[in-house]
Specification:
Helix content is about 60%, strand content about 0%. With about 150 residues, the protein is an all-alpha fold. It has 2 domains: about 90 residues, 434 Repressor (Amino-terminal Domain) (Orthogonal Bundle); about 50 residues. It is globular, with a radius of gyration of 20 Å.
């Protein structure tokens, strides 16, 4: 008598995109997690949570472009990640795609003569930029309120 074999279970879409992200990060130079944490303004533990299928913590959509840029996703990796992300979070990417267009601002800073000081200055400027981007949902709500005819 043979026992029925357990059917292989496919990972959830959330686990699938986290596995892709983890594989990409693990194939990058050491320090990538730390650089990513700094760029996102988060702790390294947050990076561990968003790349581990064991945690239900999703990757926030507003961090995707930073992740793609900093981790140097290949086009095929990016597409596979986005397909799994769309499956895990239907409609979330489309909301971001429908937001207002972004503009690029180039800021020139002096060389502070030290890699540590240069990194600190970069971190400050990126923090200000993230703060400005975080105003977008509030600005969209203000626009919706005025367009809705509310007094």
């Amino acid at each position: 008598m043979t026992s029925p074999e357990a059917a292989p279970t496919e990972p959830s879409p959330l686990a699938a995109y986290k596995a892709i992200l983890r594989a990409v990060i693990e194939n990058r130079p050491s320090g990538t997690r730390q650089r990513l944490a700094e760029a996102l303004g988060k702790n390294r533990s947050f990076i561990s949570q968003i790349i581990s299928p064991a945690y239900a913590t999703p990757v926030p959509v507003q961090h995707l472009e930073t992740i793609f840029h900093l981790c140097h996703f290949a086009p095929s990796e990016r597409q596979a990640f986005l397909n799994a992300y769309r499956a895990a979070h239907p409609g979330r990417l489309e909301v971001v795609d429908a937001t207002r267009p972004m503009r690029r601002l180039v800021v020139e800073l002096p060389d502070f003569g030290s890699p540590d000081l240069n990194a600190r200055a970069d971190h400050i400027v990126l923090g200000v930029a993230r703060g400005l981007v975080s105003l977008i949902p509030a600005a969209a709500e203000d626009e919706a309120d005025t367009q809705g005819g509310a007094p």
